[in-house]
Specification:
Blueprint: H1 3-18, E1 21-23, E2 34-48, E3 51-63
Length: 71
């Protein structure tokens, strides 16, 4: 699975779970509450023999409409 498809899967799951707007690469005009999903790093390498592994690291930011979420 490529990184963009995986990022979109994370974004879709957040949207379905919380119902708020989820931003990816384009994030101008944020309307809170919302999430921003950023791909930090992706890599792959040989594990053993013909076996390969992949890793994808995401950063998910949550922006609250109010400060009540932090109380």
């Amino acid at each position: 699975m490529d990184a963009d498809r995986l990022r979109h899967a994370v974004m879709n799951k957040l949207k379905l779970t919380f119902g708020w707007t989820v931003y990816g690469k384009r994030r101008q005009g944020l309307k809170e509450p919302c999430f921003i999903v950023l791909l930090l790093n992706a890599g792959h390498g040989r594990i053993q023999g013909r076996r390969y592994g992949q890793s994808h690291y995401f950063n998910v930011h949550y922006f609250s409409a109010t400060n009540e979420d932090f109380i």
